[in-house]
């Protein structure tokens, strides 16, 4: 069971190359602050602009740096089923605990196409597969009935649900097997997702506030919703600031302000604009991350 906070970590760059020193700082910061795991090469990790070689290298470097101290869920998805299998197989050269597999973007497959895509990937890799539903990025929404159908595939063990629909989350939890984990894919609704039976979150904001997110999820999983609600209200302005522009533009700027990474992002994404930077800084100051 995947339970708790899993940080969808950024991929730091320096002169357009992966910055391994900065990556190590990020990993240590996450582990020191109590997250359950890290997710390299997701959408927050700019997987869309990593070459195959970079993609596998980042997963390998993260796996070696983590050294079994927390879980590693490798982002290995693609809108090409064959490429998704290739990425999954490449990642399994290293010590990983699971795969995060996004719904194929741009292709807009049918629900049956989604089923066969994920089934094919799961049957061609060894580590557990976590499905990833994020219609805002992919233009396809994987319906609860498709998720339930996939939950019967031996190697598929959970889903990152980022449709923003508590109705969908509830439908999945109602009918999925007991060992099928449901993780929030939107930081702002982590507590509501756990309140209906979810198991945690794959988080963006935990890049900058891992300890607070770990505490939030711990409260919610222990049914201490009074404490969870209070901390959630405190976190909300910071969460919102991390999405004032396309993820991971704001979170990379925030990590840069904290001195953890260079403020470098790959085209077609660009660095945060002036007004956005002011919003990010204000949220960070109000939260106590910076003075």
The largest sheet, given as strand count, sense and whether it forms a barrel, is: 8 strands, parallel, barrel
Cα Rg = 18 Å
Please give the domain count: 1
Mean pLDDT: 97
Strand content: 5-15%
The name of the CATH superfamily reads Aldolase class I
- Name given to the CATH architecture: Alpha-Beta Barrel
Q: Which geometry do the CA atoms define?
A: globular
Order of helices and strands: EEEHEHEHEHEHHEHEHEHHHH
Task: Report low-confidence residues grouped into runs of 5 or more.
Answer: none
Which structural category do the helix and sheet elements fall into?
Answer: alpha/beta
Strand order, biggest sheet? Answer: 1-4-5-6-7-8-9-10
Number of helices: 12
Distance between the termini: 39 Å
Fraction of residues in helix: 40-55%
CATH class: Alpha Beta
Number of strands: 10
- Which fold name is given in CATH as the topology? TIM Barrel
């Amino acid at each position: 069971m995947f339970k708790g906070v899993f940080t969808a970590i950024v991929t730091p760059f320096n002169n357009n190359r992966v910055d391994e020193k900065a990556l190590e700082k990020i990993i240590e910061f996450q582990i020191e602050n109590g997250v359950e795991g890290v997710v390299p090469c997701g959408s927050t990790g700019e997987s869309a602009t990593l070459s195959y070689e970079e993609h596998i290298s980042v997963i390998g470097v993260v796996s070696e740096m983590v050294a079994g101290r927390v879980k590693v869920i490798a982002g290995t998805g693609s809108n090409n089923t064959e490429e998704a299998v290739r990425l999954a197989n490449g990642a399994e050269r290293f010590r990983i605990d699971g795969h995060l597999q996004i719904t194929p973007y741009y292709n807009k497959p049918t629900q049956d196409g989604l089923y066969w895509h994920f089934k094919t990937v799961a049957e061609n890799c060894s580590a557990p597969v976590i499905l990833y539903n994020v219609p805002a990025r992919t233009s396809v929404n994987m319906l609860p009935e498709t998720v339930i159908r996939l939950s019967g595939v031996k190697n598929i063990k959970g889903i990152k649900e980022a449709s923003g629909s508590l109705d969908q989350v509830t439908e999945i939890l109602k009918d999925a097997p007991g060992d099928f984990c449901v993780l929030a894919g939107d930081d702002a609704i982590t507590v509501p997702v756990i309140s209906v039976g979810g198991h945690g979150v794959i988080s963006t904001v935990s890049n900058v506030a891992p300890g607070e997110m770990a505490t939030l999820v711990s409260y919610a999983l222990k049914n201490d919703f009074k404490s969870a609600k209070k901390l959630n209200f405190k976190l909300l302005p910071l969460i919102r600031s991390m999405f004032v522009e396309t993820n991971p533009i704001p979170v990379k700027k925030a990590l840069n302000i904290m001195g953890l990474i260079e403020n470098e992002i790959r085209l077609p994404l660009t660095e945060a604009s002036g007004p956005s930077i002011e919003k990010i800084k204000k949220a960070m100051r109000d939260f106590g991350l910076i003075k």
